[in-house]
Amino acid sequence: IQELNKKLTSLTDKIADLQKEIDNRNKKSEKLKLKDRLAEEQERIKEYEQNQEDEYYKNHLEEYYYFRDSIFCTQGGNYEQRLYYCLNVWANKHKIDKYNNRYEIFTKIRISDIIHTKNEKEHEKETYETKYGKYHPMVYEITSKHIDFIICERIYGKDSKKDTYYKPLVFIELNGDSHKINERTKKNDAFKRNLFNALNRPIITIQNTTLDTNLTEYANGELSNILEKSIKSVQKENVEV
Fold first, then answer.
1. What is the pTM of this model?
2. What is the pLDDT of residue 240?
3. How far is CA 149 from CA 47, 48, 81, in A?
4. What is the pLDDT of residue 162?
5. Which string of b and e fits 158-191 if b means at least 16 CB within 10 Å?
């Protein structure tokens, strides 16, 4: 009987140990479930707060945006305005008729307005989802960047002047010291340079210090030579095509 009692006690202890283990496992399981629920609730709260923030943003746009006083950067010598003046001095020498210049100067144009992507469907797997819809890296690269100045040729349509369109010929970037120092700017410059070179339309880069001179003389001299040479190169390419 004593021997049986010992065995019974031993079995009772084992059962108690097993019960403790079961209880601990249940607690761990419950803890995991609670952690999962907590994570879900935190995600819901985060989503709700983001929605609240988005809603506030949509209804208070005036707190985030304002109109600039000038389309050009007016800091550090107002070099963009200077170059725009020079380009117009040059363009005014090329008349297509009594009232219109042959060439028009456009500024701050997004690359995606003049260059389109192709074979997007072939690269569809590279797209990624955002709250605003699908996004493609190739598209982002050209929608987030612009060209400082573009010289376009005014082309009259066959039927009438109402069919006039503007053909992009020359692309110009104005560079200051930041283009040599800022890594992000250097990366953007490299992308634009490689893109336009690949499409056989090299970008003309003008250093802002070049404009620390008599602007009219520069427009009629050095700048005029650069632009005429570039336009002849484009026109030659079109004839060969």
1. 0.69
2. 44
3. 42, 44, 11
4. 67
5. eeeeeeeeeebbbbbbbbbeebeeeeeeeebbee
